[in-house]
Amino acid sequence: MFAAFLIFPLQRAGWRRARHWLALPVGAGIFYHDTWLPGIESIRAQGSQVFSFTLDYWAELLGRFINWEMVGAGFVLLTLYLFIAQWLRFTPWILLALLWLWVSPQVSNPFASSKGASEHALNTSREETRSSVLPMEEQLDQSAPPTNENLNAYLDDFYREEQERLAHFTESLPAQATPFDVLIINVCSLAWRDVEASGLSGHPVWSHFDIRFNRFNSATSYSGPSSIRLLRASCGQTSHQGLYVTAPKQCLLFENLAQLGFAKQVAMDHSGDFGNYLTGLQQYAGLDVTPMDRKGLAHDLASFDGEPIYRGDALFGRWLNERTQSQAARNVTFFNLIALHDGNRYVASRQIAPYKARLKTLLEQLDDFMTTLEQSGRKVAVVMVPEHGAALTGDKMQMAGLRDIPSPSITQVPVGVALLGTKAPHEATRNVDTPSSFLAVSELVSRLVGKDVFGSETIDWDALLGDLPQTPSVSENQGSVVIEYQGKYHIKLGQGDWVPYPQ
């Protein structure tokens, strides 16, 4: 239709000029719609946050967005067009190309829609007869072809089944159970892809963990939703929209531990003001605890909005000092660290702090902290769960640093559990290679508190890790969903159709 509007013959020169001026914004809008840039919904939802960026960060983002090689290629093509257009009319060729783009999908598979609909109806009837008896892994059948109807049905089935899942905590601790602390370390901007791109896959900190999840899906690529999902880990995965309603108390990980005598605590290397992060956790994740005081802590980084980011080792040190003075027998602490977030700068020089340098520092601080805990004799379960990745390398859909679409390179994060202070000697890291998400973390914590792991001479790893909940890879932000189906990833933007994720 837009092409017809452009070529419709107009007699008056004034009308033609008006059409040209009108075509510019319309064409720009159509071009933006056909790109993988953030959608209008996402921009509207986060627009107020964007204006808090510093000018330095804006300049950095602009430099990433402009691809000078493509600008040069475009200039060359424009020059060729202006030269050749003197002898050759391009309009018929462009119309033929547009016609082919419209016709070719219909010619290649004219029966795809009807076939997909009939198969979906057949699968639906089968699901209705067996949904009450089969476990989730069998109900979420992926044998149907990945048509738009089947993928929509699969996503609906996934969320329906997740509503029934729950990690059950013991009503009381085992008699004479050895007290221990649980530290949930929620790290912003750390995915497996970022670790590999930084060349830090062999860092000593990884060997400190007793358990490592290799296929853990954070289910989102933004901080607030990810932290809410973590703190509501005792229930199955909900949709993005479902995060912003009051959760049942049995879904709240910290509440379940508090019922067993764990004192709740929060420690962050930032204020939590940006994007109402802390307010969101208090409202939708039951984190009704005042964060640990950060006054006097050292900081050498500033965030993209100019706020100080306090050193991880200083934060860990203050927590340990306060914990040593506390009378609570058991403690559960939520740490949130944003030192790896995009756009952070050195305070002294105002220069961009390289991601690899920041990651190396954070891993060293975490390694030193766990070593200190071991040497202190404290009994602690350290659970590191990153929020999402940094999109350090980008992909065909998103430039580096952009996280509007929850692609697998952003949501596949390294989750590790270290049991420090057990009587049993530390052994080689045990890997969990099944697809997992937050429910597996809550289930693992419930097993730790339900058994006297820290008081036993040996650890029954089979009982601890056997049959942990598996969760298929489904990730969602506002306006975008990415799922893994038949071993391949598919994406849906807004109300559009499913398409294969570009590789």
Automatic annotation (TrEMBL):
It comes from the Bacteria. InterPro entries: BcsG. Residues 128-148 are annotated as: Disordered. This is Membrane protein. It comes from Aeromonas caviae.
